[in-house]
Amino acid sequence: DRKSFVVALDGPAASGKGTLGRLIADHYGFAYLDTGSLYRGVARRLLDAGADPGDEAAAARAAKEFSLDQIDGRDIRTREVGAAASKVAAMPSVRAALLDFQRRFAANPPGGARGAVLDGRDIGTVVCPEADVKFFVVASPEVRARRRWLELRAARPSLTEREVFEDLAERDARDAARADAPMTRAEDAELLDTTHLTIEAAFAAARRVIDGVFQRCEG
Ligand code: CDP
Ligand code: CDP
């Protein structure tokens, strides 16, 4: 049997990775993993326990004990969880504890799927450097802030677009500057700028790239 076909999606917050990842996974019958949910899940646990997200020993323990079912039904999309997630994500012990799960998911996708789509910050560089297709998904900071604000404001009507802009800027800067697995475009990653693209147009562009790789694999 064939090795799993892996699609890596990296890039800054709210660039459209998750939306694209789910569409790609559905279309090709691949399994999908939002790796940000792992870091958010660890952060959520620490915040719930009243622990300081800067406490590396506590964060490493939470990461070692983490499993996806812990976040079922939990709200991990809040700005507090996002901020804490990017703090724990800078800790090498936390990243190391979550690495195996991500690699196993890619190599052996659940449900017997023929491939896997993973989205995050370091998929194409660290988690799956041998991925079959890599995208680095970007969009202007203003457009990303607007998109995320539109998602969050229903739950928090007092939240301003400016606050979301600042949250994302702070998180992106931390994610790009950390020593361990920083957010960077892999040399062989296709740059996908979604600033002026609808979801459908971004998905079509991604499909063209993936179909091209499929043809090369099979021809
Ligand atoms: O996963 P990531 O944080 O990169 O972004 P996302 O959750 O996929 O997208 C953030 C928001 O932007 C979602 O509400 C998407 O519907 C929206 N979006 C968009 O309006 N246009 C795109 N081309 C991509 C995403
Ligand atoms: O959805 P959004 O793009 O806002 O963030 P996310 O993908 O849910 O990731 C939350 C945080 O987890 C990021 O700001 C990163 O600090 C961290 N993360 C990471 O370090 N490596 C990954 N592969 C995925 C997420």
Automatic annotation (TrEMBL):
It comes from the Bacteria. InterPro entries: Cytidylate_kin (IPR003136), Cytidylate_kinase_dom (IPR011994), P-loop_NTPase (IPR027417). It catalyses: CMP + ATP = CDP + ADP; dCMP + ATP = dCDP + ADP. Transmembrane segments: none annotated. Keywords: ATP-binding, Cytoplasm, Kinase, Nucleotide-binding, Transferase. ATP binds at G11, P12, A13, A14, S15, G16, K17, G18, T19. The keyword Coiled coil does not apply. Belongs to the cytidylate kinase family. Type 1 subfamily. This is Cytidylate kinase. It comes from Amphiplicatus metriothermophilus.
